Amino acid sequence: MAKKKRKHNNTPKRKRFNRRQRLDSAKHWLSTFEGGNIAKAYRKHYGIDWITAFIELEMLGMKIDPKYAEKVLESVRGQTEARKRKRLLKSKDEEQTLEDYQDENYAYIVGYTSGGVPYGVTWEEWEELESLEFDEVEIDDIDTISLE
After folding, report:
1. How many Cα atoms occupy the beta-carbon half-sphere of 106 within 13 Å?
2. In the 8-state DSSP scheme, what is residue 7?
3. Could you read off the pLDDT of 20-54 as tens digits, one per residue?
């Protein structure tokens, strides 16, 4: 029997470091860094969030402007709130879509007759379906089951 191939992790090693490993690696990285915004570069290089980047850079002896840090963190909070609002709107849209297929008589409206009358699964039938225990039904008996 052939050996199974091991899955290769495509995530760079530096993005899988824990804090101690990052701090050890960052000492060398900081000495070779030539960019402008060190906090942004550090965050992206090691794949961490802003708060962690600010904390670790201060641990490494870098001075971070408190006004800049507060401005960035406020922006991150705003983005988080925007995502929450978007998720909430999406869930409300999904609920509305579900309500389009339900009313007070039908748990699920399959369609409408030519006269505009809905047909589908009533709430009583829905409750019966929910109460059925399908584990007790054998495969051969399925043809004889009716929902009447």
Report:
1. 16
2. P
3. 999 999 999 999 999 889 999 999 999 999 999 99
